[in-house]
Amino acid sequence: MMVYQEDQEFQKVDYTEKGFPQGSYESCTFIDCNFSNTDLSTCNFTDCDFKGCNLGMAKLSNTVLNDVRFNECKLLGLHFEDSNRVLFSVKFKKSNLHLSCFYQLKMKQTSFLECQLEEVDFTETDLTSAVFEQCNLAGAVFDNTILEKANFCSSFNFQINPNQNKMKQAQFSRTELAGLLGSFPIKIV
To answer: What is the mean pLDDT of the chain?
Structure first.
């Protein structure tokens, strides 16, 4: 049975054992909830906030994430590329997305604020005008990624090959330029 919830707040609910009710959730807030390994497939989240939630390894097959904000969440190993691509619009703040994947998603103007993005896969993702503010990008994969006008000024530990990505007008801090030159046979002293 599909449920419809609007303007509801869910606090400290553990969905790992009883499962998450499939349906549509509009303008809902989830606070300190546990969705770890939970099947969220075909659920529809519109204008929703997740605060302090654990969504590690949750299943997102055809999940709608439309204007969804994640704040201080654990989003380990999520395959965002499995979610509904047409209505995909997300923002992240102070969240851990270690080993997550955004393969081939359109994420123009997406903001990642103070996030842990270690080993995240951005292969063939459109990140035009995205903002990466104070993010750790150690081991993150950028391959054939559109990074035009993206802002990396305060982020660190990235390795991005300018020859394999579209980077027109992307912004970087001088102190992190080594992350753009690692693929070239040069020594930086």
So the answer is: 96
